[in-house]
Amino acid sequence: MVFLWAQNESHPVNPKAFSSLQLKSPMLKNLASLGYVEMTPVQAHSLPLILAGKDVIAKAKTGSGKTAAFGIGLLTHLEASSLRVQALVLCPTRELADQVGRELRRLARYTDNIKILTVCGGVPFGPQRGSLEHGAHVVVGTPGRLLDHLRRGSIDLSALRTLVLDEADRMLDMGFQEEISALIAALPPMRQTLLFSATYPESIAAMSAAIQHEPAEVSVDETHDEGSIEQVFYVVEREQRTEAVVRILGHYCPESTLIFCNTRVECQDVADALVSRGFAALAIHGDMEQRERDQVLVRFANRSASVLVATDVAARGLDIKELPAVIIYELSRNSEIHTHRIGRTGRAGEQGLAVSLVTLRETRLITAIEDALGSSIARGDLAALQAATVRPPAPPMVTLCIDGGRKNKLRPGDILGALTGEAGIAGSEVGRIDIFDSHAYVAIARQSVEQALACLGRNRIKGRYFRVRRSG
Question: Between helices 41-51 and 66-76, what is the axis angle to 10°?
């Protein structure tokens, strides 16, 4: 590793360390407490530019650390004493907006009096308007709902300093061009604009030219070790795809699997078929209410469900660090989307499996995908797979839902303390804890679920009783 020697210092400075940046002490302490020691490539390349106030256009995939890159930058530039919207983050989906909002709150933990609001569709308009009237420093949301607030006069963007477009390519794919343009027209021209995109088509170049001033360009390739993803094509008839998925899952037995479908109807049909065969499968698509979508994502992320069936839009922004397998139920017509799909597995040095179901009529698509990847992909034989004959194993964790959340001042530590204290449950049997405005979710090892339910049902948390039940 190469080190730079700092002036008037007797110790070398690691150029990848967050401490090498001109960050305030509370931010550095918080980053250390979160385990953020060295910057990822996208952070190392973009953060110095962002902190210097420059416009940046960055090409980076989901999972590259881009949220912390723009998050640290916009939080550093905030003036805490002014309770006006100083930073706006646009996201393509509610799930990504919620994830970004949570990450920004984590990054702002040691910075006093910073208010961050998430503003998306799918929830009542009135409470959002009330929260905006009380003021906020940072607003994260989807273009459609934010434009509604702007037109109704419930959000004031005249003091904005930083605009972030996260996954800008997906926002354009979803048809948000007009909404984004209308929002930007209402912003001060003197601002910092940060544009993050997984791909860099001509439409993104055109958007950058229209809304940014002499942007610095940052490009970070997908961080997969060579050979970390095993790819296989299985040739099937269209009507045999669901049975093929069952056979593949039974043979490989991955602990977690993300299945990509091209339509909402397909997602639900595949998930229902897998559930009927004993798999702990869930679907996520645009026809679901926001709270139901939250539950699905939480249960999959905390290993309470083994299979998630999703469209590309719904899968954007999934906060899943370890994903052993991806199954492409139906090929995308876009080879770049295929690359993005398989890129969800095999991260952080882990081995991944990417299985694609193809028909004999899709020869051209297969060729395009192999050309884009620069290598041929193995063809598998479904008949040769040794499918399991026993019922699929239950997921290792169970999710409990608590009818209290951020508005009740609940914190993860309060829930963890109740479980490991009064209940006597080992900390190793308590998994991920997610706090939302009115609800909280905690993953419990299957063998300790009844003990956890009994404890949380009869004991107070922060001085009051909360209803607790299994999620799903």
Answer: 20
Collapsing DSSP to helix, strand or coil, 397 comes out as strand
d(C-alpha 225, C-alpha 152), whole Å? 49
Tokens of 37: 């020691």
Q: Looking at residue 2, what is its pLDDT?
A: 32
**Angle at 144 (CA atoms; ends 434, 472), nearest 5 degrees:** 30
Which residues contact residue 470 at a Cβ distance below 8 angstroms, ignoring those fewer than 6 apart?
A: 398, 399, 400, 401, 449, 453
Q: How far apart are CA 79 and CA 340, in angstroms?
A: 37
Phi, psi (degrees; rounded to nearest 5) at 375: -160, 160
Q: For residue 131, give the 3-state DSSP assignment.
A: helix
Q: Residue 55 in contact with residue 194, Cβ under 8 Å?
A: yes
Q: In a 3-state reduction of DSSP, which class is residue 186?
A: coil
Number of domains comprising the chain: 3
Assess if residue 185 is contained within a domain: yes
Residues 147 and 23 in one domain: yes
Q: Are 90 and 257 in contact (CB under 8 A)?
A: no
Least confident of 74-78, 228-232, 289-293: 289-293
- Whether 390 maps to a domain, the answer reads no
Q: Which two tokens stand for residue 306?
A: 């083994």
Q: What is the pLDDT of residue 416?
A: 83
* Full domain range(s) for residue 424: 397-470
